[in-house]
Amino acid sequence: MKTDFILILDFGSQYTQLIARRIREMLVYSEIQPYNCTIEKVLASKKNYNLKGVIFSGGPASVFEKNSPKISTEYLNYFIRNKIPVLGICYGMHLIVHLLGGVISKSKIKEYGHTILNLKRSSKLFINILKHTCTLKVWMSHGDSIKKLPSILKVTSLSQNNIISSFESEQKNIFGLQFHPEVHHTDYGKEILKEFVFNVCETKNLFKPSSFIKEKVDSIRNEVKDNYAILGLSGGVDSTVAAVLVHKAIKDKLICIHIDSGLMRKNESRDIMNFFKKNFKMTVDFVNAENLFINKLKGVIDPEQKRKIIGRTFIDVFENEALRIKKHKGNVKFLVQGTLYPDVIESVSFRGPSVTIKSHHNVGGLPDKMNLKLIEPLRELFKDEVRKIGKLLGIPSDILRRHPFPGPGLAIRIIGDVTRDKLELLREVDYIYINSLKEFNLYDKIWQAFAVLLPVRSVGVMGDHRSYENVVCLRAVTSLDGMTADFYHFKREYLTYISNKIINSIKGVNRVVVDITSKPPATIEWE
Fold first, then answer.
1. Is the pLDDT confidence value at 511 over 90?
2. Do domains 209-400 and 419-514 have the same CATH topology?
3. Model's pTM, two decimal places?
4. Which homologous superfamily does the CATH classification assign to the domain defined by 3-200?
5. Which of 93, 117, 376, 396 is most buried, taking the most CB atoms under 10 A from its CB?
6. What is the rounded CA–CA span in Å between residue 327 and residue 317?
């Protein structure tokens, strides 16, 4: 049975990933594509899925601007002809009006932040909300508005400023929202999206982890055939789940390689090798490449350059290992990576749509040409979905509960150039910090926690003597998938304890600060 899915066309909104996230929370598969993708290509890549609906995201442009991102009227008509419901949000709403012959203009009254709506008529999107209220508090972010609505579209709500805030065409299955239902600031936002997904699109065949596993196992087995695949095993959730999933498909044709880049946390490589030897019957080779990575990073300050150097160096090591394996076993054609959907979203930029936030070493950090073909079995999934897959695969909870750790390792938690001394210092800080979270029963309440070594020194007084030492910053966030995050609110007693513990235990640190920034506006990692 095919899985139903919702396609999201990205027109540049920083909220686009939230739309996908909200729909995934309903156990409905959703996927973001650039607005200028071809629908034929999308459908060809989703042979095991049924397209049930399309959402046009918001965006920062105006539809009447010359270079604003647009699709053709024929593109919209494709969905109408095939009876695929369309929902436009903010810019996406304006684009639908524009394509159908309506008029969009600059608003005399711009609406940003919370706005009150008056629901004017029954709508498939508001059908259950109207049982409770005729007004909604929603989140607006627009400077344009609808001046003239095409005749086939009917107004379903007006804002307190008498601006059209939603419309629908029941006949054509077209819907538009001026506000953002995907953000938590909008009352009944999730309910509105649910009505579109289930009532309008009639989505029924939900995303099932067990079906996903079977589909991926069959697909990987058919692709790899008699060849070998290698996998970069970091020991984190993503690479572990990817390893167990691929091993299920091709057994001994998978060779896992753990590379000690010298950028790992304290005792990490030793613990990973022991864990896999104890829990899994799969081949795991160990490669000590510490000198190679640290030498390549010598004097490099720019974080994007760090990521790309590390990504290329990993590939160089993998390709060398592939040649070694080929001599002893057989042809290695594939490289498996634990890339996740947030990695893809943050690393890929389209003309007009969401800007690239940062390249991930396993997405944007890879060289253009490689001798190995990529297999990324998890690239469609969010982190919480990966944990569900891992649980079904029998992976111990100790691994599945681990905080995310970036592929570039501690290199992007050292602001500035990377040296052995800085790595050793940060390793010790991280070790004390993470263990203290476990001691205080805080580790499982936090999605990700880590320390950052700042490129500054500060004056202090230690033992009645002046000190001039390093500053470290502690970061801890709560999140579902890393797309958005809030900083964790530590109690004062814990902060006092951990600050004293780090300064008293580690020579070279005399000041500890705490990062209390959410995402957005910041990213979780500093680099």
1. yes
2. no
3. 0.76
4. Class I glutamine amidotransferase (GATase) domain (3.40.50.880)
5. 93
6. 16
